[in-house]
Each structure stands twice: as structure tokens, then as C-alpha cells.
Amino acid sequence: MSTHPVLSKLKDASLFIEKGHIDGAWVTAASGKTFDVLNPANDQRIGACPDFSVAETNRAINAAHNAFSSFRDTAPRERARLLRCWYDLVMANADDLAVVLTAEMGKPLAEARGEVVYAASFLEWFSEEAPRVYGDTVPAGNRPGASQVVTVREPIGVCALVTPWNFPAAMITRKAGAALAAGCTAIIKPAGETPFTANALVELARRAGMPRGVLNVVTASTANTPAIGAALTSSPLVHKVSFTGSTAVGKLLMQQCAGNTPGGTLKKVSLELGGNAPFIVFDDADLEAAVEGALISKFRASGQTCVCANRLYIQSGVYDKFSARLAERVRREFVLGDGSKAGTTHGPLIHSRAAAKAESHVHDAVQKGAKVLVGGSVTGATAAFVQPTVLTNITSDMRIASEETFGPVAGLFRFDTEAEALQLANSTEFGLAAYVFSRDVHRAWRVARSLDVGMVGLNTGIISDAAAPFGGVKSSGFGREGSKYGIEEYMSVKTITLGAERVQSRL
């Protein structure tokens, strides 16, 4: 145990599980096949998980289906207590979860622990929402007094939760917390790069008393994931699919959920897809606050978040000062390295392919006239490391203007007028998040309302919170996660109309 790269660092080694979870038990693949998980900071093997097939996926679906018949009728307070206990266990084991998360995803330990706390907040939030899923009484409009209309909210059924690698803890709890609070059961399909965080979370849910079959984990290699996805989207027992990931994959899953094949079904779908967030700084902005917001929104998780600022639009009056200050702070404060090492502020990207894409954006921009103020190259112990980079003189013909980099590269565009900034910001198929910095409250509000996005940060680079609805418009998807709206994604509204009692005259 002492030589294992993860186990030796855990207080509770039993949280590192190299299996999948079906019907209340940790299991291996019937085929015996596994896939390796590598640490992107050093390319070392962390461990292996079962490479499940469609057969195991169907077993998990059946387990969730069987559990739903009883779990849907549990008292909301009981579901609240389960979620609260799960929250307490996640917080108590936050350090171990952070170690596992850093090993397989690469983000620094401090940031990983921050994600674990953020992940736990969804369990706490939805534990409080579970007992407050209310219906309505509705006056009958056509025949007042003749009948009574009542609505009740019911859990939609078995849910497939397909989660990404960039937030392997928070994306699970944000979905599963809402689903369980509503009374649904679930199959979690974590990314092939980050299955161990999912397993540790579900083990803590088991310890919290989660009933058998309510939460299942289907692990699979990246190569085998499409077959698992097809099984989840085609099963008549699955009634809801929630996916966070790329727009291309989201569109494919939505087509599959529409049942355009013989025997296909129609499922409720929520999709949180790609982003290309604009970050707008006006001349009258608090420049230090704007730089701080850019550091957070652009470089968090080494730029690997869907709400990262991807296009930084800086008004001409402060362009030079802002770009110099941003570059100076990146140069002075950021330390690139292994996320498990003290002092590291930014870890590797998830793999060399992600780094190659970020590097290609830098090279394309430089060839077309951009200037590198800091960073600009791939460097580190593995090919997954990219220096935090600030580029100026970015123009609309560069790839970074239209493609999501998903890496630590800040490209700064210059603009002159508010109308120009809005036109540039909205000139994309994506509409997830945006950021606006201005001391003029009227302009800030006006611009926020004019942006074609689902979320706007006004004078802040942080917009994610369990209490705030998270989601986008256009090709960034639909549906909302977190907040009071998040639980609605896992429920259906049933209308019950009670006919008026007939009163017969006795005269």
C-alpha cells in the first residue's frame, strides 16, 4: 500500500475503489476487462476500473428501475436526511476526496478541495429542497365552482447522469442531489478519465444509508463510452438523461433520446454543453476587480471549465493598462506543476490532446499578428502542461475568437463602443456565460440583459453557487442545475381535476 501513488496519501484507503457499483454492490466486469486511469501530471498509472459493457449497463438500469418503485414513495424528509448525511460524510472526507481528484484530473490540491466543498454544497442544498416540492390548487377557468384542479409534482423515474472529467465531484452531486431529492433513482456514467472520484462519492452515499439500487456507477473506457451512452438513451426504463459535456456529444445524445429507431423512447433531457464566454471590461470599470475576475474566470482549473472567459473584450481606453496588469499578475503569481506538490497553483490539462489544442490556438493567433505577453508554450513533466498565457491584438479571424480553447490562454480583443462589444459578444452559437465589468450600474444591467447567455457575472468572475440556476441557451444547451429550479428537471407535473359533487333537490 505504501508504494501506491494514491493509497499512500489517503487517511481512508477504502475510498479508492477500482470497481463499478450496481444494485448496492461493488462489482467487476463480467468480461474481466479493465481500463487504466493515468495521472496527467506524470503519466503514471493510478489504477484500473471495469470496462463495462451494455450488459452491465442494463443491469444497472434494471437495478435503478426496481429501486424506484419504493424509493419514489419515501418521505421527502427521509430523502432529506439521506442527503444531509451524505453531505456530512463528504465534508468529513474532503481531504481524501481532493487527493483522489487531483491524482486523476490534475488540478492543485487546494482547488480540488474547493471543488469537493462546492460539490457537498449541492447535497446540502437539495437536502433542504426535498421537503419543499409543492403543488398548486388552481381555480377552474371554464366552469368556476364546478370542479377543483390540483397539481402535484412526481419524480420522473430512472435518470442517466453522464458527467465530465473537469469537475468530477461537483457535476455528480449537482445532478444526483437533485434527482434523489425528487425521489428518482440514477445511473452515473463518469468520464473515463475520472472514475475514482465518482466511486468515492458513491461509497460515502452507501455509508449514509442510500438504499440498494438507488445510485449506480457504470465505469467505461473512453472507447467504450458511446456504446454505454446508446444503452442508456435507448432503454425504455430510463426516463431522464442529464449530460454535461461537448455540444457535439450532447446533440448526439439528444437524437438518441428522441427514439428515432424502432422501439425508441422519448426522454426528458437536460444538457449543459460548450461555452465561449465573453468577458467585457468597460473604460469605467474597477480595473483591479476586472483583472481579479479575469484571473478567476479564465484560469480556474487551468482554463478547463465551460464558463471560463474565452474572449476578453477590453475597451480601448483601458486596454493597454488591463493587459499589462493581467500579464504581470499571471507572471508573478502562477506556478505551473504537479497539483499534488505544495506551491502549485495550476496543474496540467487533462491530457496531451487538450494541450495540443490550446497550443494550436496560440500558434494560430501569433501567426496572424497576436503578441504573447506571458506564457505561450507547452512545458512541463508531460505533454499535458500548458503555460498560463496572455495574448494581445486578438482579431476575429483567429481560431480563439470562435473556438472554445478549454485551456489557460487569455486572448484580449479591443473594442470602442458598447454596441460593438455586444455585437462581438453575441456573435457565437454558444450562450452559456458572460462577464461584464463597469461602475455604471445602468450600463451593466443594460448589457447583461442584451447578452444572449444563460448566466451573467456583473463585476465578478464567480457565478457558480448551489443556490443559483446554472445553464445556457443556444448551442450551450437547456435545462437548469442547482437552485430551486434544479429539482424541477427531475419531476413531472400531474394535474388532477376533481369533478364537483352533484347535488339533487329533494323538493
TrEMBL record:
Pathway: Amino-acid degradation; 4-aminobutanoate degradation
E.C. numbers: 1.2.1.16
Active site (UniProt): 272
Enzyme class, broadest EC rank: oxidoreductase
Keyword Cell cycle: no
Gene3D superfamilies on file: Aldehyde Dehydrogenase, Chain A, domain 1, Aldehyde Dehydrogenase, Chain A, domain 2
Keywords assigned by UniProt, alphabetized: Oxidoreductase
Reaction catalysed by this enzyme: succinate semialdehyde + NADP(+) + H2O = succinate + NADPH + 2 H(+); succinate semialdehyde + NAD(+) + H2O = succinate + NADH + 2 H(+)
Transmembrane segments: none
CDD domains the record matches: ALDH_F5_SSADH_GabD (cd07103)
Top-rank lineage group of the source organism: Eukaryota
PROSITE patterns according to UniProt: ALDEHYDE_DEHYDR_CYS, ALDEHYDE_DEHYDR_GLU
InterPro entries according to UniProt: Ald_DH/histidinol_DH (IPR016161), Ald_DH_C (IPR016163), Ald_DH_CS_CYS (IPR016160), Ald_DH_CS_GLU (IPR029510), Ald_DH_N (IPR016162), Aldehyde_DH_dom (IPR015590), Aldehyde_DH_Superfamily (IPR050740), Succ_semiAld_DH (IPR010102)
A Pfam family assignment: Aldedh
Family the UniProt entry places it in: Belongs to the aldehyde dehydrogenase family.
Name the UniProt record assigns to this protein: Succinate-semialdehyde dehydrogenase
Organism field: Sporothrix stenoceras
